């Protein structure tokens, strides 16, 4: 269970960082827009913790994405207007 948590935290953290940078946000910008703390954003991006469902919803609303996108390990972002998810079969 710990391995799955760690891997998921890394995927989600990388996706938050990728989306944040694509939108041109600093960690503080994202914290202010989402209503979360900057340290919380930092911990998510570092893979130190996973956001709970309330925080996931706030982040998804801020980025205008569906929840599944945040957890997808194949996220590709070229601009804030172009978020692509590749599904492995």
Outline the biggest β-sheet: 2 strands, antiparallel
Q: Give the count of structural domains.
A: 1
Q: What is the share of helical residues? A: 55-70%
Overall form: globular
Number of helices: 5
What integer is the average pLDDT? 89
CATH topology: 434 Repressor (Amino-terminal Domain)
Number of strands: 2
Q: What order do the helices and strands follow?
A: HHHHHEE
- Portion in strands: 5-15%
CATH class annotation: Mainly Alpha
Q: Strand order across the biggest sheet? A: 1-2
Low-confidence stretches: none
- What's the architecture in CATH terms? Orthogonal Bundle
* Intertermini distance: 23 Å
Going by CATH, what is the homologous superfamily? Answer: lambda repressor-like DNA-binding domains
- Cα gyration radius (Å): 12 Å
Based on secondary structure, the structural category is mainly alpha
Topology diagram in text:
Elements: H1 2-22, H2 27-34, H3 38-45, H4 53-63, H5 67-70, E1 75-79, E2 82-85
Antiparallel strand pairs: 1-2
Helix pairs in contact: 1-3, 2-3
Structural overview:
With 89 residues, the chain is mainly alpha-helical. The protein has one domain (2-85): Orthogonal Bundle (434 Repressor (Amino-terminal Domain)). Helices cover 58% and strands 10% of the residues. The protein is built from five helices and two strands, in the order αααααββ. It has helices at 2-22, 27-34, 38-45, 53-63, 67-70; strands spanning 75-79, 82-85. It has a two-stranded antiparallel sheet with strand order 1-2. β1 and β2 form a beta hairpin. α1 packs across α3 and α2 crosses α3. The longest helix has 21 residues, at 2-22. It is globular and about 35 Å long. 21% of the residues are buried.
